[in-house]
């Protein structure tokens, strides 16, 4: 049968596990239902092999039957591990039967995910010379302005792309050191974190100035990840290198975090805000645990406790909480991807 | 009516009957008695209630015949039972319930309202019943569905369930609440009437707790002592939250304390007790509808209904700030339809979650039902930290670090050192980072601007710099300075050397210098010339010999090279140009008896370069020599 699909799932009452042939890092959950079956959700998994040949697989998740299906042709090669994968947010289902996936590596690449094939759409490369490239550490797709993607790179710059035209909208030297993550707030405002330990906000309308809203207490301690609360744009979360704390920032009161969530017993690897609630955030770390926190208006004297917890089999490296499936959280640890019901 | 002692702690048995009687009498929808909780002090909770409103599906056990009253009583009981069942957290409705039990789909909206009310608790001063208790005065709320939730916390529920009028009055240590799905204009005689139904003897309405009174001149009034007294004494105090603009009964402005007949004043932003405005605010467009209806220009509901938002995914709502005040009807429409669309469990959850703000044990968040078997997550145990399964030996955040640190370098070894090397030009913006902490912003910015100005000046001074960024400017300045220093060093050393030479060679050549006096002040030339001349005279006798080059000084602007081939002299000469120097040189040459047949000269930047080809005329030399040196 040409249309062979495999079902690889470990069914339990409330979680679904998919075991991949290789270690998984990059992960993305689609914002639109799969073109084949409206109940299914597409999930893209990027491998992590210290090798030139890496792969990205698309699998379909069915929340009703609690199963995931792979499709052998929904897969493509990627040079070196993709540092991030993301589907286009808020993709209008009327636009086409396909989905757009972006991947970052040495360049930003766009892929069209169709029913049974993936077509490369474009490679967005900003270097003037063919010799040099500035590899990307992360990117973010603006959900208000879906033609805009911002990328962060180790050459200290952030580049804003207009992907419809395939050109650079603008490029900013964002930090003094490598930029590790970028997150959009509104249509023209983004923030980034860097090895220089600062969180800076940029407004495309005023490219002369940026605003530092937080700097790590030990100078030059890199901040590795950033997440902006899309439900309440005042709040952001970031994690520091080798730190077990999730730092919650209020952009109105810079330099002082509003909360530091310190219940992980090892360093935190990933954070994501709840897509439907402004008060909830999920974090996962090397202690194999994923916490869901509810941020109170007033914190107790002992700090904030998580609402609930999940323990995985090994260190959790990746976390995705999709707006399309607010009941499910996807985590990745070693070579497994798990979907957890919230 | 029963004469039972109105015990403040417990709900008397016949209260239900009284409630039933009261509400049937006035043909309202429901009556609730809120009593002081025995479990939690200072809190009003559901005491008893009677439902008299519309019923959708009547479920009775066939065998039993009931009259109308009993049917209604039974209905209330069934509702209570359903509530208890649901609140115990079981999701499967089939488990262990009598066959005639109600299930969620059997209820009308008004019944839902009644049922959900069972879950409510009010602090003293909070919500309509709470404030009623604290103030000790009856409260009549029209258009309950439009009230601000600070005033009437169930307003949203009322809106959905079309409960339009709610009246509360304190009774027997608690509060009796009556509600109806029609709009009934305020009429406190009705309240009095109800009260008389309840009371057969005057009862003081005393509250056990010291109630903080805010702004009302409120002594503990005993309005029920005498219905007539009530009228006169209650004048300044009765509150009617009347938010309907068109109603003729409303006096929208302030207190009218001196009119005993009028008991209305607008409630302006009652604070205290009601749920605190949380700092985690929603830009929730739907709630701005209430602003429409509110006479006050008070701000939109700032309550956050976390769960509401989650359970009702009404497509992509605009999250614009302060924009898009939707039509009330449209909003109603969507809410009701969304309620209808979901399945019944969801309906229940939706209704509950709309009201409850997370403090209720039923709802922690619609997803976070830890008692719900469906979630993968376990609730957090305060003191029992779940132990990690493995001891951490390796690098923390290993994969994340590799993704950020090493993977980018896997791609290409030849990475640009700076963004400029990658071909970036002025198209790249370099924003100035504003540190907006403390008072450093302004002087810091000024300092930076000064630095930038100085750098611009430097750029204009230093040549050969096309790039505008600071590093390039400084680099080219450094280069330029070093170059200048080098030149200065050369010039100085050159000058010293020539001075030295001039001093050492002056004496023996005095005689020759006479001939060179025509040259003026150009000492270096003279030195050269004199040495040249000397050699010439010596060699003049040996015309066959070849003369090698006269060594020329390196690095100086003057030099002279002479080469000879048989009878032909080739003289290459450089010296600083001045007026008439060429003529003097030619004169000197002729004195030396050199017959020039080719002269090439050019000046370049103040330097004169001469190339002279000449022949020697021998006989003249001898004469010249003799005449000069003998």
UniProtKB/TrEMBL annotation, chain A:
SUPFAM superfamilies xrefs: WD40 repeat-like
Entry keyword set: Acetylation, Repeat, WD repeat
WD repeat residue intervals: 172-212, 261-295
Pfam families: WD40
PROSITE patterns: WD_REPEATS_1, WD_REPEATS_2, WD_REPEATS_REGION
InterPro entries, A to Z: DCAF7-like, WD40/YVTN_repeat-like_dom_sf, WD40_repeat_CS, WD40_repeat_dom_sf, WD40_rpt
Gene3D superfamilies: YVTN repeat-like/Quinoprotein amine dehydrogenase
Alphabetized PANTHER family for the sequence: WD REPEAT CONTAINING PROTEIN
This protein's name: DDB1-and CUL4-associated factor 7
Native organism taxonomy: Eukaryota, Viridiplantae, Streptophyta, Embryophyta, Tracheophyta
UniProtKB/TrEMBL annotation, chain B:
Domain BHLH, chain residue ranges per copy: 435-484
Alphabetically ordered keywords of this record: Activator, DNA-binding, Nucleus, Transcription, Transcription regulation
Biased composition (Basic and acidic residues): 506-516
SUPFAM superfamilies reported in the protein's UniProt record: HLH, helix-loop-helix DNA-binding domain
Chief location: nucleus
Cross-referenced Gene3D superfamilies: Helix-loop-helix DNA-binding domain (4.10.280.10)
Biased composition (Polar residues): 517-530
Annotated GO MF terms: protein dimerization activity
Superkingdom of this protein's organism: Eukaryota
Chain segments carrying region Disordered: 506-536
GO cellular component term, pick one: nucleus
Cell compartment(s), UniProt: Nucleus
Any GO BP: regulation of primary metabolic process
InterPro entries given in the database record: bHLH-TF_ACT-like_plant (IPR054502), bHLH_dom (IPR011598), HLH_DNA-bd_sf (IPR036638), MYC/MYB_N (IPR025610)
Transmembrane feature ranges: none
Pfam families assigned: bHLH-MYC_N (PF14215), bHLH-TF_ACT-like_plant (PF22754), HLH (PF00010)
Protein name in UniProt: Transcription factor GLABRA 3
Source organism of the structure: Hibiscus syriacus
């Amino acid at each position: 049968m040409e249309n062979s699909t495999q079902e690889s799932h470990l069914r339990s009452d409330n979680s679904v596990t998919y075991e991949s042939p290789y270690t998984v890092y990059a992960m993305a959950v689609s914002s639109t239902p799969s073109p084949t079956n409206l109940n299914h959700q597409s999930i893209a998994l990027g491998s992590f092999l210290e090798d030139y040949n890496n792969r990205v697989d698309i699998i379909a998740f069915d929340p009703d039957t609690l199963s995931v299906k792979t499709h052998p042709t929904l897969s493509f090669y990627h040079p070196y591990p993709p540092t991030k994968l993301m589907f286009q947010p808020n993709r209008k289902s009327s636009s086409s039967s396909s989905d757009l996936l972006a991947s970052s590596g040495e360049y930003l690449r766009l892929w069209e995910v169709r029913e049974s094939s993936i077509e490369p759409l474009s490679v967005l490369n900003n270097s003037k010379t063919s010799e040099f490239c500035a590899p990307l550490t992360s990117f973010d797709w603006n959900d208000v302005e879906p033609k805009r993607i911002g990328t962060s790179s180790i050459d200290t710059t952030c580049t804003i792309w207009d992907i419809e035209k395939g050109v650079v909208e603008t490029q900013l030297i964002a930090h003094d050191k490598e930029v590790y993550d970028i997150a959009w707030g509104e249509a023209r405002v983004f923030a980034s974190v860097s090895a220089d330990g600062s969180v800076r906000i940029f407004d495309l309308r005023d490219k002369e100035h940026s605003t530092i809203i937080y700097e790590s207490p030990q100078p030059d301690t890199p901040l590795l990840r950033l997440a902006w609360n899309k439900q309440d744009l005042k709040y952001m979360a970031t994690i520091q290198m080798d730190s077990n704390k999730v730092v919650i920032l209020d952009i109105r009161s810079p330099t002082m975090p509003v909360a530091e969530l310190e219940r992980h017993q090892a360093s935190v690897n990933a954070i994501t805000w709840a897509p439907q609630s402004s008060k909830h955030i999920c974090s996962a770390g090397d202690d194999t645990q994923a916490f869901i926190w509810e941020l109170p208006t007033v914190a107790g004297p002992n700090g904030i406790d998580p609402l609930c917890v999940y323990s995985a089999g090994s260190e959790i490296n990746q976390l995705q909480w999709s707006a399309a499936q607010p009941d499910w959280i996807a985590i990745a640890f070693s070579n497994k991807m798990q979907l957890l019901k919230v | 009516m029963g004469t039972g002692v109105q015990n403040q702690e417990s709900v008397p048995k016949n209260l239900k009957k009284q409630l039933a009687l009261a509400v049937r009498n006035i043909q309202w929808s429901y009556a609730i008695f809120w009593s002081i909780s025995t479990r939690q002090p200072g809190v009003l909770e559901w005491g008893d209630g009677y439902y008299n409103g519309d019923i959708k599906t009547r479920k009775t056990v066939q065998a039993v015949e009931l009259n109308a009253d009993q049917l209604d009583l039974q209905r209330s009981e069934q509702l209570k039972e359903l509530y208890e069942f649901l609140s115990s957290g079981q999701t499967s409705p089939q488990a262990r319930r009598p066959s005639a039990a109600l299930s969620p789909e059997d209820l009308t909206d008004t019944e839902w309202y009644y049922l959900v009310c069972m879950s409510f608790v009010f602090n003293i001063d909070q919500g309509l019943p709470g404030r009623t208790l604290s103030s000790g005065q009856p409260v009549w709320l029209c258009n309950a569905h439009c009230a601000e939730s600070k005033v009437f916390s169930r307003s949203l529920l009322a809106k959905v369930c079309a409960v339009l009028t709610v009246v509360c009055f304190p009774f027997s240590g608690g509060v009796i609440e009556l509600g109806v799905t029609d709009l009934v204009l305020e009429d406190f005689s009705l309240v009095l009437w109800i009260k008389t139904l309840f009371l057969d003897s005057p009862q003081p309405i005393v509250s056990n707790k010291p109630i903080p009174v805010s702004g009302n001149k409120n002594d503990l009034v005993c309005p029920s002592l005498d219905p007539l007294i009530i009228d006169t004494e209650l004048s300044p105090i009765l509150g009617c939250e009347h938010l309907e603009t068109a109603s003729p009964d409303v006096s929208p402005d302030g207190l009218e304390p001196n009119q005993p007949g009028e008991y209305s004043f607008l409630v302006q932003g009652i604070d205290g007790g009601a749920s605190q405005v949380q700092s985690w605010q929603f830009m929730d467009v739907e709630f701005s509808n209430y602003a429409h209806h509110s006479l006050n220009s008070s701000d939109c509901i700032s309550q956050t209904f976390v769960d509401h938002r989650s359970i009702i995914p009404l497509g992509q709502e605009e999250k614009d700030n302060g924009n898009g005040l939707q039509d009330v009807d449209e909003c109603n429409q969507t809410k009701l339809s969304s309620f209808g669309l979901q399945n019944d469990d969801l309906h229940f959850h939706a209704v509950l979650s709309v009201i409850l703000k997370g403090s209720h044990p039923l709802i922690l968040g619609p997803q976070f039902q830890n008692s719900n078997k469906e979630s993968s997550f376990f609730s957090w145990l305060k003191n029992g930290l779940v132990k990690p399964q493995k001891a951490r030996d390796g690098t923390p955040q290993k994969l994340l670090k590799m993704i950020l640190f090493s993977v980018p370098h896997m791609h290409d070894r030849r990475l640009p050192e700076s963004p400029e090397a990658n071909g970036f030009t002025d198209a790249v913006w370099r924003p100035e980072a504003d540190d907006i902490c403390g008072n450093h912003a302004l002087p810091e910015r000024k300092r930076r601007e000064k630095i930038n100005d100085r750098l611009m000046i430097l750029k204009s001074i230093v040549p050969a710099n096309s790039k505008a960024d600071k590093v390039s400017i400084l680099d080219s300045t450094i280069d330029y300075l070093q170059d200048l220093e080098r030149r200065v060093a050369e010039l100085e050393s050159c000058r010293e050397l020539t001075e030295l030479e001039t001093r050492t060679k002056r004496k023996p050549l005095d005689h020759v210098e006479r001939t060179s006096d025509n040259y003026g002040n150009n000492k270096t030339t003279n030195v050269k010339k004199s040495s040249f001349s000397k050699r010439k005279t010596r060699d003049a006798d040996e015309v066959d010999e070849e003369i090698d080059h006269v060594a020329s000084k390196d690095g100086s602007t003057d030099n002279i090279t002479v080469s000879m081939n048989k009878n032909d002299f080739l003289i290459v000469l450089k010296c600083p140009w001045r007026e008439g120097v060429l003529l003097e040189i030619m004169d000197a040459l002729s004195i030396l008896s050199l017959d020039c047949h080719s002269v090439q000269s050019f000046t370049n930047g103040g330097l004169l370069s001469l190339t002279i080809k000449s022949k020697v005329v021998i006989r003249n030399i001898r004469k010249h020599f003799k005449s000069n040196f003998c």
